[in-house]
Amino acid sequence: MPLTDVKIRQAKPGPKATRLSDGGGLYLEVAPSGGKWWRLKFRFEGKEKRLSLGVYPDVGLKEARERRDAERKQ
After folding, report:
1. Burial of 45 by CB count in 10 Å (0-12 exposed, 13-18 middle, 19+ buried)?
2. What is the pLDDT of residue 18?
């Protein structure tokens, strides 16, 4: 189920890092310190890789999805 801006704003930090999935490899990682980072998970040559797409709220949901699509094209 895709993320919404309300779900992102309501996400609270816990004792461990939490991942809120949006789809297509895009997810929001909520750190125990309260920071929220957009990440893209993908595979390259059979190995799992992660790419940082920015920090929330500097990069909103719409822009994160656009960045995900641009990276997928490469």
Report:
1. exposed
2. 96
Taking the C-alpha atoms of residue 20 and residue 43, their distance in angstroms, rounded to an integer, is 19
**For 27-69, how does the pLDDT look when each residue is reduced to its tens digit (9 = 90+)?**
999 999 999 999 999 999 999 999 999 999 999 999 999 999 9
**Domains in the chain, CATH or no CATH each:** 5-73 (3.30.160.390)
Instruction: Give which of 34, 39, 42 is closest to 3, Cα–Cα.
Output: 39
Q: Which residues pair with 18 in a beta bridge?
A: 30
With a cut of 80, say whether residue 1 has pLDDT above it: no
Name the residue among 30, 9, 36, 5 with its Cα closest to residue 18.
30
Structure token digits, residue 36 = 């929220």
